[in-house]
Amino acid sequence: MRVWSVTLIAVVFAISACTEADQEEVKVESELHSPVTVTEPVARDFAEISNSGVLRMITHYSSNTYFLNQGIEVGFEYELVREFARENDLALEVVIVGADENPFDLLNSGAGDVIAANYTITPERREIVSFTRPYNLVDQMLVFSSQISPYPETLEELSGSDIPISVRRNSSYFVTLTNLIEEKNYDINIELISDALDTEATLVQVSEGNLLATVADDNMFDAANRYMDGLFPGPVISEKDTIAWAIRNNSPDLEARMNRFLYKHFRFTEDRDRPRRSTFLNVLRRKYFEESRQIAEYYNPEWQYQTIGIISPYDDMVQAIADSMGLDWLMLTAMIAQESSFNPNSKSWAGAVGLMQVIPRFVETEYEKLYDPVTNIKEGSRIIKEHLRHYSYMDSTNQWAMALATYNVGLGHMADARRLAIDANRNPNEWENVADALLKLMQRRYYQDARYGFARGIEPVQYVKEIMNRYRTYEAIIALAENQQRTGVTNLIGTDINRRP
To answer: What are phi and psi of 291, to 5 degrees?
Structure first.
């Protein structure tokens, strides 16, 4: 059984190279940087998103954007986008950027609807996508390792030194550094690193001395400096950069809705020096960038080793039970997240208890024992397996969707919904048709003739949607972990670009 490191960050070491500058840039483009290949965005504006019921957020797995803490989905960007989704009656699906994927391609191809990853608005990015109004202002600053002593306190002191500044080619930091070289004539060494290393992961490498220097936004440095040793602040290289969400440039309705939402939470004053933030946004800033208790725990080595696995504290337990019953452990984990948020003492208003919210009257186990995690997961797994067997003649996707809905709403209401689908001359073995029928069971003209009467059909429909979305996110996280462990130290650090005149 595999247990993955919760940080998903491999230890890396610097690799130097000595070819000509133009040759190095070609090498970096081909080996380290995933170029944009999708330039024509798909037609998917807010109407299409609303019809699907799901907003898909493209982001990186890191403590300032999106991560799992004891199995619970958290992160500054995640919570902000989730609030927008909630206000617009949308489920939120998280699309994790893979090691070899370009987030702008994911956006324009329709794999996601918004990039929420602490992105600075730059002219280069505006050529590919549109941006919402800003929701943050940051300064870009140099950050040095404790191995450099004394470290440069000004750009003039840095200019002409041998200190490599390690940044991603696909970052606003690279643009800022190259502008300083070309427009201000500073003599700066740039070392390109893989896009797989986000800003936080790069700061980890600087703190451990594997890299000597990098660039970070001031809020990210302030947060990281609370739980990483060996980071020293250098000079600011860009002031008051605007952070915003990236969306397709053919999505005016989505942009308008997002702008209205963000205007409630962030707006500029006349002098732009002290923007106004809502209480909600200030709480998020304190949580993830100022107090950072949650983030400090996330990267505390002792806490890491105490965690059982990357998804939740119950990974080993769920995997063992799933293996013994022939079930998908990630799907069971997604169910537990939905049912109880990994709280073994959870109890619903309807009397369902424990991790998988098992209803006591449907099992023979003693009531008190249902609060035991192993017992509860076994009983919940037994029930979902029975439902899967009931729909065993369907393909896997429909089988799981039907079983999950049955787990939530019961066999009786599912039977009524499938009858309604048949009455409408639609295939009752297709989840989409049954989902529509479940929604009809909320209307009197349909449920008055149904055998089991009224059903709050929106609940099982949302239940299935959110579990399936979470399952795909879990798959992406596991794939990212596997890739990190497989590639190890070999492909994350790039080459020096000597841009001296």
So the answer is: -80, -45
